[in-house]
Structure formats: structure tokens, C-alpha cells
Amino acid sequence: MNLQAQRYPGIFITFEGIDGAGKSTHINHFAGKLKEKYPAKKIILTREPGGTDLGEKLRTELLNQPMHPETEALLMFAARREHLAQIIEPALMMGDIVISDRFTDSSFAYQCGGRGISIEQLNILEKWVQGRVTKGDVFEIQPNKTFLFDLSVEIAQQRREQTRTPDKFEKLDIHFFNQVRNEYLRRASVFPNRIKLIDASLSIDTIRDMMELEASFL
Length: 218
Ligand SMILES: Nc1ncnc2c1ncn2[C@@H]1O[C@H](COP(=O)(O)OP(=O)(O)OP(=O)(O)O)[C@@H](O)[C@H]1O
Ligand SMILES: Cc1cn([C@H]2C[C@H](O)[C@@H](COP(=O)(O)O)O2)c(=O)[nH]c1=O
Hints:
The protein has helices at residues 23-37, 53-64, 69-94, 104-114, 119-130, 153-163, 174-190, 204-217; strands spanning 11-17, 43-47, 97-101, 131-134, 137-140, 145-150, 195-199. It is α/β, with parallel strands linked by helices. It has a single domain, classed as Rossmann fold (3-Layer(aba) Sandwich). The strands form 2 sheets. A 5-stranded parallel sheet has the order 2-3-1-6-7, sandwiched between helices. The ligand Cc1cn([C@H]2C[C@H](O)[C@@H](COP(=O)(O)O)O2)c(=O)[nH]c1=O is lined by residues 19, 47-49, 63, 76, 101-102, 106-107, 110-111, 169. It is an enzyme of class 2 (transferase). One of its GO terms (cellular component) is cytosol.
């Protein structure tokens, strides 16, 4: 990866996908492989919504409390602003590696694709929360690399049903998750250099091998 192109010396990686696609199954092993490659760098594993005390409190509300879709979008970005301020940006400035289980692609997929908020509204929030101006240099904090675990909504639902009690999002129907998945896939086609599609229907071992290879490219 050409780190010269980034504004911070650290590396920012995100895992994305519909609920049950398999992100959490791979994130720790992937972090371990990156640690082998960059032993001198600190690796921060975090998640959204969450990652800070305030973010975790907001997460509890977001995953349990019914609310207006715009309130939901605003709270997701409020939690993200705190996450960037407290965890992500300080780490990237120090040259650390940040791996986040979800980031802004989730907001576009769930709040735009799933809930129907307009992309224009989320673009405004993204610019506000991720936009920075330093010495006349205007840029947006974005992941260097995003792994999108792509899976049919039916299989993802089966996987979830086997293992957990559903939260507010996981109770939503197949139509909602198809819209979320389609928005993820649309973004993958708009940002092909950043978003790497992972076929999450493959076996856990096969995906682990693929992720090891991906870690070696970073
Ligand atoms: N490739 C796979 N094949 C079969 N089962 C899998 C695979 N990957 C993950 N699973 C299983 O599917 C379930 C959901 O996986 P996991 O919790 O990693 O999904 P997730 O994408 O992190 O979900 P969420 O975003 O909702 O937390 C787990 O029980 C996990 O063991
Ligand atoms: C960041 C973010 C998350 N969501 C949704 C997606 C999931 O259903 C939950 C988080 O649960 P997980 O088990 O940690 O994956 O929150 C969202 O709708 N919008 C967002 O920006």
C-alpha cells in the first residue's frame, strides 16, 4: 500500500457486511497476521457503533431502542465523531494500525439502503464528521482498506438464528437486508480500490487463508 498517499502515518482498516456475514469470526486472526507483519506497530481493534464509553452507551440505545431513522443516522455519526476524536485519529497520527468492525459504509448501507435516508443527507454528515482542514489541506478521513463480507441474506439469517438473540436490526426482514446488501455492493463498485469483496459463503478456513493473503498485501 502506498502510505505516502495517506494524511496520517497509520493504517485504517474496516470490516463490513450484513449481520451474520462473518466479520467478527475473522477480525482477530487478521489482526494477528498484521502484527506478525508489523511487529513494531500497535494494533487497535475497535467497533462501531461503539469504541468509546459514550459510543458504547449510544450502541446500547441504537441496537435496542426504536427511533426515527434520521435520529438513528445522527446518533451513528455522533458515536463516530467521538470514536474518531478519542481512538482512531490519535492512533493513526501515532502510526498505529486501527481495525474497526464497521465504519461509515455501514451507515450508507443500513441508514440509506435499509432505512431510506437520502445519500445526500449522509454525504453531509460524512463530510462534517470525517472532514478535516489542516494548513489549507482539506481531506476526509477514510479507511485505507475495507473488507466487505458479502453473503446472501438467507444464509446470513440462518447463521444468526443458530447463535444469538436478535437485536433491533437483526429482527428486520429479508427485504431490509437485501437493500442493505445492495447498497454495500453498489459502494464496492464505486470504490473498487478501497473496498475488497470477500465471498463470505466460502468455508471459514478458506476465508481465513484469503484474509492472511490480504494482510500480506497491506
Ligand atoms: N464462512 C462461514 N461458514 C459458516 N459459518 C460461519 C462462517 N463465518 C462465520 N460463521 C458463523 O456465522 C455466525 C455469524 O458470524 P459472525 O458473528 O462472525 O458474523 P458478523 O458478520 O460479525 O455478524 P454481526 O455483524 O451481526 O456481529 C457465527 O456463528 C459464525 O461461527
Ligand atoms: C456502524 C453502524 C452500524 N449499524 C448497525 C449494523 C448492525 O446491525 C449493528 C451493529 O451490530 P454488530 O453486531 O456490531 O455488527 O448496527 C448501522 O445501522 N449503521 C452504522 O453506521
